[in-house]
Amino acid sequence: MITLSLLHPLHKTPVQSWSFGQESVICIGRSTDNNVVLYSAVVSRHHVEIRRTDSGWAVKSIGTNGTYLDGRRITEVPVEDGIVIRLARSGPNIQIHVSEEKRDPLKELLMNRRRIEEAKEAEHSTHSELHDDSEGLSHQTTVINPEDEADPEDEPAGAAKDDKS
Fold it and tell me: Structural domain tally of the chain?
């Protein structure tokens, strides 16, 4: 399981948290198609991807204004439990906690069987139906307080440059 916590800009205490158990990619940005939606002028529509890897998790910066770890701009780094990344030089801080889940082989087997059955049903279906997808994209929206520290090098995402992220 991985937990992301939005930290208060001054006190560095968590103000909101999101936990993910089954996702292999967690997306953070302004766009509503992200798992974690943060409304801040310096956050790109698609700013960060946190991906499950063979050896754990990795943070990949894909935003215009960059992502920072310990004050240094990063492109991709492995996740260590408790790291804090900053979206843009003056944007929100996100703390990442990783906890090992105990593997349940029976649960994994049942979930794999369910996926196979759903795929077969979808193949044989002659009409389109809406299904309750408990594993669908989950996201929550957070409005970032304008009291975030301002940095003249950060541009509002989408301003001056074409924000392609």
Answer: 1
